[in-house]
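Before a computer can learn anything about folding, someone has to put a protein's shape into writing. The three-dimensional part falls to structure tokens, numbers that each stand for a local backbone shape. The protein below has been through that process, and both of its lines are reproduced in full.
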Amino acid sequence: MIDDARAPWHHLYGSHPPQMSLPHATGLQMARAALARAGDRPLLHYFDTPLSGAALDRASDALAHVFATAGLVPGDRVALQLQNVPHFPIATIAAWKAGLAVVPVNPMLRERELAPLLADSGARALITHEDLFETVGGATIAGTDVVLAITASPLDFLTGPRPAPLADVRRRVPEGAQDFAELLAAHDGEAPPDVAVGPDDVAVLFYTSGTTGPSKGAMNLHRNVVYTSSMLGEWAGLGPDDVLMGLAPLFHVTGFVIHLGTALATGAPLVLAHRFDPGESLRLIERHRATCSVAAITAYTAMMNDPAFAQSDVSSLRAAYSGGAPVPPAILEAWRAATGTYLHNAYGLTETTAACTLVPQGTDAPVDPKSGALSIGVPVYGTTIEVLDEQGAPAPVGEAGELVVDGPGVVPGYWNNPDESAHALPDGRLRTGDIGFMDADGWFYIVDRRKDLIVVSGYKVWPRDVEDVLYQHPAVREAAVVGVPHEYQGEAVKAFVSLRPGAAATPDELIAFCRERMAAYRYPRAVEVLDELPKTASGKILRRALR
């Protein structure tokens, strides 16, 4: 087994191996310290509007009071179906102040996808955007444990001219929900009763496909969140004079921890801009002189392809990271040639509370000469990674096997799911299901992944989820879904179908059918109709042959 204290990569850190004291604090303690330290200074920028630590403290107090008066008790869950808006950090801190766990939810999810998450988590409150409540949330909460529904407008908290990306947004408060801003105003100056929150309490329930099958709630504990947030701050050398640009969505573990968590751990202000827009992101990086960010490589590619890129100065971005999807080395070089800064590769999972490997600052990640793969970095402070062969034995240096992760970021298991917890973490160490190897200098590489998982711009898509929707179409007899290479997204979803005798359906019709029922990143971008799908002798469809 290799660990950072005696690893061959110690020279990458400097003259000594890293010495990071592992925190045993809570997200609540981390947040309270950050709010107090910031005081009247900005801890958040929403487009061009600053929000001070004191303002965030007061707002989160008011919302925590709302949670308590609505009957939520410590240990309950609050679902946040929000974009990168101030409501998200306010609601997170408020939930922790009330002893609650947050359940981040992708705003792209439709009713059939949101309902199982609310049911499984037992969420008692839902905070979502006004338009999403009208189209998804309002119908979904019927029959769930949700007793408090709050809607948020992207126009809240803004001062000055309306940002261009929000030009078409209009305010409305749907029936059956309460307005976020009105609640804060009504309860301004109020605070929740003190509650006991411990490092081993659940801070966030992130729903993930995990190592097998459908979504499961990874129990990210307070100590997991504080560790990874603090670790990145130390790794990148961040402090209150730095600025974090929130390119990654906060509803994803990467954005939640490396943006929001690291802002709270270091006191560096966080810049939010609703949804990712390449031109607006370039403007805000330059406007706020952002020094750190993380995003899928597709976001950096989109910014480089934006007409504003040539006139934008993003040279302040000294600690830029990319993770969630394979990174072509050519894109790193193109970014560096254009900006003078380097993109640092990263690897992590929901179950490791974001990054478990990173490329050290001031170091270029090597490229494996055999596969052409860019290294995902080296294990972060306090973390152990082992490569196991098919028999579960340690694989020799340079030979591929499953990556197994142990460390302070690894979650204890999945919410109410002991079988999947035992499968993914049989001895407390995470079986990632990803195939990789370590070279003689201690750099790690991913060379393959689980057979069926499709990764679209960093989002996980399981073929069966898409197939289940296709099978709902009356003309579909058989369906199989695979991932195909995509220049921008890394992979795209492609479906193969056969039709019922006498039935007719065009590829465009089937794509539209799925699009109406699935998140944007999940529905197939291409459908091919075949007379028969290839099968094994037992009748199992051969996705391998379709690939």
About this structure: The longest helix spans residues 53-69. The domain at 55-197 is CATH 3.40.50.980 (Rossmann fold). The CA atoms of residues 205 and 219 lie 5 Å apart. Residues 1-20 have pLDDT under 50 and may be disordered.
